[in-house]
Amino acid sequence: MLELSMHILDIVQNSLAAQASQVEIRIREDLGKDLLTLEVEDNGRGMSPELTQRVTDPFYTSRTTREVGLGLPLLKLAAERCGGRLEVRSQEGKGTR
Hints:
- The protein is α+β, with helices and mostly antiparallel strands.
- Helices cover 34% and strands 21% of the residues.
- It contains 3 helices and 4 strands.
- The strands form 2 sheets. It has a two-stranded antiparallel ribbon.
- A hairpin with a 4-residue loop joins strand 1 and strand 2.
- The longest helix has 16 residues, at 2-17.
């Protein structure tokens, strides 16, 4: 749970850096299906389709303080190791989910 909470914190920090004034975190658990769904949605500036495709590349980051961005790539890896997946949906000017 600690690792998951750190991923959530990282995503929220990304939302705030994208000038979001609202961030919603939804966590749903379906014990019958052995399924945990985590959604983070913001109303920040959003991303272009090209950038949305690149955010899970560990060698891409929009930050200028370092050359790699590991937050989303590590979350994607953790989800896939559990048989899950990571989806990023974004629209410029409307936010990211």
